[in-house]
């Protein structure tokens, strides 16, 4: 065992001694234009999928995994621009891996957006308008990432569900959230997605078309025996908003309201 440590120590020392020589030789070779400068993240990012495929060939998966680990390091440093740049490359290397698109969107729409909304940087904290703008820009970036990913995997329920959640919880576009929840359900997501779609449609402000969609879904579920307080409450509200005739309305009483609860969510002071 002692000899193994001695051998390892010698290898490390030799490696350290070689570094200055290797750097000098590399610099000379570059000055003679015998080898190229390493590509920056920006240069790699500017390449299309075909260009990256030509460079990395069969090791694209390995390179994508390594860059994902690098992106996690930048995430811990709250370097959001670098996180976004790295995931741009990762998703170009492996465009049909839904988890990469999902993670990239999560970082932008939740982690980065939340950081800018709640951070206490002395420059940003004084200006709620700037913080709000950065929040919305990164939420939209998350949406754009998922829309791009869905071009490669249009039948992936995970991406549709993530898109729906961002519309529902971050940008509050309830009509689009409902559409995305329905797509998730259509492509194999759990049945709860159907209820989420209806609840999103029901909360779309002054949108008769969305309210009609919500009523159709919830009334169908009610007729099948689904009588949860949430479904009944939404149906009663929709009956009033849509002017459903009295004879066609459900007979259930409106559920008693629960005690108010503080629900965490994005707010600007």
Which key phrases capture this entry?
12 helices, 71% helix, 269 residues, mainly alpha, single chain
Tell me what you see in this structure.
This protein has helices spanning 2-31, 41-46, 49-56, 60-76, 80-93, 98-118, 128-152, 157-171, 174-186, 192-202, 208-223, 229-242. Among the domains are: 46-154; 178-253. Helices cover 71% and strands 0% of the residues. α10 packs antiparallel against α11 (208-223). It is mostly helical and 269 residues long.
Short description:
This protein is an all-alpha fold and 269 residues long. 71% of the residues lie in helices and 0% in strands.
- Helical residues, percent: over 70%
Treating each run of at least 4 consecutive H or I residues as one helix, how many helices? 12
Low-confidence residue ranges: 33-47, 51-57
Largest sheet descriptor: none
Q: Kindly provide the radius of gyration, computed on alpha-carbon positions and rounded to a whole number of angstroms.
A: 26 Å
What is the helix/strand order? HHHHHHHHHHHH
User: Separation of termini?
Assistant: 62 Å
Global outline: elongated
Strand content: under 5%
Q: How confident is the prediction overall: mean pLDDT?
A: 81
Q: What is the tally of beta strands?
A: 0
